[in-house]
Design goal:
about 190 residues, alpha+beta, Glutaredoxin, about 55% helix, isomerase activity, isomerase
Length: about 190
Amino acid sequence: MLDIYHFSNPLSTDCLKTEERLLQLSYDLSERVHLRFIPLLDHHLVAKLTPSYLRDSTTDNNDQKSYHIAMDYKAAQVEGNKKARRFLINLQHALTSQAYSLALVTDIAETARLNVDDFLVNREATETFQAVLEDQALAKQMLSKADPCIAIDDPTAIDTQLLTNLSIDNLIATFAPHCAKSLAPDILRQHLSI
């Protein structure tokens, strides 16, 4: 099984495109894939986080917005990674033209077919907060800098591979060996040209 981690800035449209490409790649790969999206938070923010931060903060700045998105994503993950990934991508698309709000998040949770009542409880739960902190600890462990990147943990390789160049060409070069033999690089390029 190939473990793929996308450490992303949840407010970046470039990271959004990379997430969409990784979703497509996960269908094109010939081996089983465990795909994880991990919204990155500023390490200064992580140091001062408390479980009540979500309730006590507004979304006036990008750090607070990123924290809210990370909590929302982890709350959605309670219902499964596929729904959570769809939720996150839909939320990121919406945030390109709308302000972050509870109403927006609730609408997107409904669109992603989440149990909205449970989701609203989970987004403020201590367990969700702990899960966000665990993701940030994993990012700190795997990354030398808190920059968006992809980490690939391949059981046939000795070290985890880190990609900081997330261009289509680099994604093709990295993942082509893991694709089905019948999938030519030009077809893979078409799939990734979202």
